[in-house]
Design brief:
- By secondary structure, this protein is an alpha+beta fold.
- The protein contains four helices and six strands.
- The strands form two sheets. The protein has a four-stranded antiparallel sheet, covered by helices on one side.
- Strand 2 and strand 3 form a beta hairpin.
- Helix 2 crosses helix 3 (about 150-155).
- The radius of gyration is 26 Å and the shape is extended.
């Protein structure tokens, strides 16, 4: 690949070179008899040394191509393209963690209702999960940006506790050995609805 066709050439580390570029092309639709202007972009990664420092006998070349009609810079389009993997993780959480992979009915209206209720539950669980980051959260091996629904459900929703009624008040006992008790109380105070 000649470098003159590439708009951006970067070397993130020794032995790795990334070529980024794009070109606008006019495409004719035979079905609708119209012309569209689309952008054909590419990201070419050439590796002569792998991430462990081993030299490659033949360079490893990886090509990613995309089509779009957005006018954003190439780097932003590529970051959007790479971000679709994160959306797939959210879809996976809805299907596996919330068990909505197979809808229960053959009726469209019933399945639509189940999906709407699942959407409400998903948003509430995500809000709780984002509220647990930082503050008095248990120590993690690495910094986290979000919590999976499975973690929120198993550590906060299904938390063992003892509820007692005393002096017209509900008292929740969580136990001192539970490392999530401080986060649970913070979340309860943050989203508590007071009856006045």
């Amino acid at each position: 690949m000649a470098k003159q066709y590439c708009r951006n050439v970067t070397s993130p580390r020794d032995g790795k070179t990334v070529y980024i570029g794009s070109d606008w092309k006019t495409v004719t639709s035979k079905q609708f008899n119209t012309e569209y202007t689309l952008r054909a972009g590419y990201e070419i990664t050439e590796r002569t040394i792998d991430k462990y420092g081993q030299f490659n006998l033949v360079p490893d070349i990886e090509v990613e191509a995309w089509w779009t009609n957005l006018g954003d810079p190439d780097e932003e389009i590529i970051s959007l393209y790479h971000a679709h993997g994160e959306c797939e993780q959210f879809h996976s959480e809805v299907k596996t963690d919330m068990d909505l992979e197979r809808l229960p009915s053959g009726k469209f209206a019933t399945n639509a209702l189940i999906l709407e209720l699942g959407m409400i539950a998903y948003n509430i669980l995500r809000m709780i999960g984002q509220g647990t980051i930082g503050g008095r959260a248990p120590r993690q091996k690495r910094d986290v940006k979000r919590r999976r629904l499975r973690t929120v459900i198993s550590n906060l929703i299904m938390m063992a506790g003892h509820i007692t009624m005393h002096a017209r008040q509900l008292i929740t006992g969580l136990g001192r050995s539970n490392i999530w008790r401080h986060i649970f109380s913070d979340i309860c105070q943050k989203y508590a609805v007071t009856n006045s």
